[in-house]
Amino acid sequence: MSNTTSPCPPNSLSYNTSLCACNPGFYFPNQNTTNCTQFGPSSWSVGPGVSPGPQVFFLTTFFSVDSSIRRLTQSQAVLLETTLVVLIAWLIFCFVLRIKKIDESGKSKVFKVRWGISQFDFLFDTRHWTDEQKAVVRRKTELGGTFSVASWILFIGLLTALLYQVFTKRTIEVHRVKPANTPDLLSFINDLEFNITTISSMSCANLVMPASLITGTPGFIDFRTVPLSTFIKYTCHNTSTGPTVSLRCNSCKIPRRNHFISWQFVDLPNQPAAAVGFEFNLTSRDHYEKKHVSYVSGTVNSDGVMDTSTKGMKTFRGAETNVLKIQLFPEEYLNSKGLKLLRPLFNDFVPGSYFTDVGGLKASLQNSRDGLVNTTLFISYQSDYIVQINKESVLGPVSILANIGGLYAICMAIFLYLLTQCETRIPKLRNEDIVMRTILCQRRAQKNWDKVRKFVMYTWGPCNLDPTDKSGKLPKKSVIESIHGYGALRRKGPGSRRNPENDDKSSKPPNETDNGDIEISIIS
Fold first, then answer.
1. Distance CA 298, CA 420 (A)
2. Which residues of the chain have pLDDT under 50?
3. DSSP for 252-301?
4. Which of 191, 223, 324, 353 has the highest CB neighbour number within 10 Å of its CB?
5. pLDDT single digits (tens) 326-342
6. Which residues have CB under 8 Å from 490's CB, separation 6+?
7. Domain boundaries, the chain
8. What is the pTM of this model?
9. Which uninterrupted H or E stretch holds 448?
10. What is the pLDDT of the chain when averaged over all its residues?
C-alpha cells in the first residue's frame, strides 16, 4: 500500500520509504480498507455428511412424542430434577396434613382431603401391618395412599427419562474395519472439491497457477509428474479474506500413491506476497448419490502451527513451502444403501517461511528473493483398510418392556420398604385408618337415623314419638288415631284363615281395664 499522502495506520510498518505493510499476524481485509486486522484463532469443523435414515420404532407408530420430548427437555437431568421436586412436594404436603388433628365431626376439608388420600392406596392396600394369627384384611390407609402416589410419581418420571433416552439414543454407530483389495477400492467413485483460501491482502493476480500434479514419493521408483489439467480442474476467485484456490476432481478413484499439488503467490507493485493463515473446506460426494456429503473445514493460523518453538503472531512469506496434509479415508455406509465416501481428514499443517518480528518482516519485504508464498497440498490415501459403518438399534421392544417393568418394581420396592419401616417403628400408624373409618361410620349411622326419624314423623305424626300426656296416660283421640297406624304394621300370614270371632273382636274398640289404661296388642 502506498504511503505518499498519509502515515502508516496502527499495527503496520513502513518499507521502501513509501509503502506500508501490516505487522506480523495482521493483514488488510480488503484493498479498500487502510486498517490492519488481526486474524482470529484457529477453528475446526468436521462433518460425517451422512445423516441417519428414518428408523422404524415400535413406539413411534403409536405415540408421536419424540418431537414433544425433544422440545420440552434438553437432557435427562431436567426430567429427573423435575420428578424429584414433584415427589418432595407431594411428601411435604401429605406430612403437613398428617400432623394436623383429625376433625371428629368429619366435615372439615382437611378430613376430606386425608380421606381422599387414603383412597389412593391402590398399591399397598393388602400389604399393611397385621398382628399375629389374624386374617389379612384389605384396607386402605392414608400412609399407603401417600406412598402409592409417590411411587407413581417416581415411576412416571423415570419412565419419561427412559423414553427420552430411547428416542435420542436408540441406535449406535458401529464401525467395522476390513482389509481392502483392488475391486473394493475401485468401487469408490467420488467427486472431490478442495477450497483453500490464503488469508491475506493479496488477490488472484498474485497467483501463479499450478501446472503439474506429482504422484508417488519423491526419490522412489513410483515418482511421476503428470499435467494437472488431465485429472483436476482448478480455479481462483477473490473473497473478502483473500484469494481462494478451488481444485475439483469428478469421478475420482482411489489411486495407491500420494498426490502433491503446489502453487505460489508472488509480489506485485504495491501488493506484497504475505499471508497470516489459511482457510480450507474439503468435501467429498458420491458420484451417483449426491445427497450426502462428507466434509472437513476450518482455519489455520499462528495458533494452529504445530511448531511451538517460536511464540507470537506470524506472517508467512518466503521460499519454504507451507504444506497442508490431507488424508482420504474410504468409508462404506451400510445403512445408506451401501453409500461409499472418501472422508477427507485434515491431518497436519507444516509451516514454511514465516516472520514473527517487525524488523525481519521489513527486511523480507525489501528483498525481492522473499517475494512469494509457497503452498503445497499433500493428499495421501489410507487405502489399506475400508471402514464399514452401520446403525444398529440398542433397545428393542422386549428390552423396552423389561426396563419399564424394572422401573415399576423398583419404585414399588422403595416405598414398600418405607411403608414397612414406618408401620413397624410407629405403632400408631398401624391403625391410623380406624379413626377415620369410625368417624365416617358414625356420620353414616347418624344420617340413616335421621332418615328413619323423618320417615316416622311423616307417616304417623310427631305425637307417636311421645304418646303420653302430662298425666302419664295416652289420650283417647291419639289412641284411636294410632290404631290405624299399628294395624298397618300387622302382617298376615300367607295361609291364615279368617275367623268370624276374630273379626268381631277386631271390630270392637280396644278393651278398657279397671284402671282406665288401654291395652294394644300387635298380632304378627
1. 62
2. 2, 4-5, 51-66, 69, 306, 470, 472, 474, 476-524
3. E---SS-EEEEEEEE-BTTB---EEEEEEEEEEEESS--S-EEEEEEEES
4. 324
5. 888 888 888 777 788 88
6. 522, 523, 524
7. 12-51+177-391, 66-169+398-432, 467-524
8. 0.57
9. helix 432-460
10. 75
